[in-house]
Batch of 2 targets.
Target 1
Amino acid sequence: MTESTPRPSSLIHTVYGEFVRRLGGWISIADLIALMAELDVDAPAVRSAISRLKKAGTLLQERGGGSGTGYRLSPAMGPVFEEGDRRIFRSLEPAELADGWVVAVFSVPESERAHRHTLRSRLSWLGFGNAAPGVWLAPARVLPDARRLLERLGLDAYVHLFLSAEYAGFTDLRTAVAAWWDFPAIEGQYAAFTDTWRPVLAGRSGAPGPGRDRDSGAGAGADHPGLAPAEAFRDYVPMLTQWRRLPYLDPGLPAQLLPPDWNAVAARAVFTGLHTLLAGPSLRHVEQVTGLVTAAHHRQEP
């Protein structure tokens, strides 16, 4: 487990995003409590987290026939999880400097300054760096996700987006970039992930290599013959919960602009190895506990 234990709501978010979506989108509260107990989260904490997620519009209460009361993902969460798949499960190789930048310029009236804070936090969450007050930039490939997010949050009226091919300023670009992004903070989170999960990966002798069939979803990859599905689930959910915020904070800057020995490479290798090893048996464990069947559609490569 990590030194900073994930919140129950974050773990539930992971369970829904990685498993429940493939099992029809609904799970009974009894089965969810049983799964969360394996992650050392008690029933009152689960119910409290579910209440907050319901209030936020993430989950909808629904009866499941003979299965009792449960919760389904809100339809509005579909695009959110699809965007998450694109960011979390792709390799996020460094961008090419020649591809250019997307620049976001925003202006918010003082009477609506709450939107200003939301814009800053959301642009930062997408991996944008802050070049000047109201001016943010990221590699050009972030543009589609930025457009979708700003439109979904109703913030597009405050923002102008530009594509720029190259930097033509006066400061060395590498020096400027180091001021626009908080590299030590990003590297600190990558280091914490690697320190926590590299020993877990090393302890799984005979783990398969990092390759996986992305079209076949969470069940891809050969299983380690001695790895019980429940054991895989107990490692996989907190690991994925810790990982899934990192690809957002890291915009995948061109390699020549990154600090020497950029530690994201090592962290990604640990994530890929554990994902390949644990995802399939974890899904089977959820199927065994819930009796639900994997849906016909699978997560597709963006």
Target 2
Amino acid sequence: MEPIIQESALPPEPEATRRDADVTESSRANRGWWDRNADEYQIEHGTFLGDDRFVWGPEGLDEVEAELLGPPEELKGKDVLEIGSGAAQCSRWLVAQGARPVALDLSHRQLQHALRIGGNVPLVQADAGVLPFKDGSFDLVCSAYGVMPFVADPVQVLKEVRRVLRPGGRFVFSATHPIRWAFPDEPGPEGLSVAASYFDRTPYVEQDDEGNAVYVEHHRTIGDRVRDIVAGGFRLVDIVEPEWPAWNTQEWGGWSPLRGNLIPGTAIYVCVRG
């Protein structure tokens, strides 16, 4: 008879709290979290993301229609860096447009899923705050929820992105819409009442029973994001707030048709290297 796993033998659920978390702790925690959860993430969301689609967020806004990187026909021959690539779905779409992408992620396990799916995309494991590329290596940099929500020093990341971009290059990234931080992370009616201050920048941290962070997200207001972008050496040319489309009936964490029809869930920032 196979032994029955006792509930006490299971790892304890992490404690959710709000506290400071610096660059090192955030990076270490999130690398570990994505390594542990990459399999479940790809199983749960892989069909929605596809193997070679460029989706900006849970609403389902596709780069085919958004053209935030520019018209698809102008992507041919462009050197593109995707930061926080996960399984490199967006990079495969870029390959199909004739671009030359590089897919970078902090998580080794996420990049193993990129290898599993396949495709001619160079893969790099690295921290976005210290990009392992020469100055002026890329025409475009993009990140679909891949990095900015998880870093303690967004200006450092922006400066690194600016460094590896060529003059006039574009950086487009999506992140949780800042207003979402005032509401509970629930897809149903309980997620429609303000429960916290929009102006509280204290990071959301999940920690183990010894107080070590195992997951970290950082909150920036819209104004903070704009100031960060300027401080990083960019000119902000657009902020896109995707509306929830009628065809999308799925729930994804705190995202849902109910909430998506009332409040924005994603913000996409379109920046040009100054």
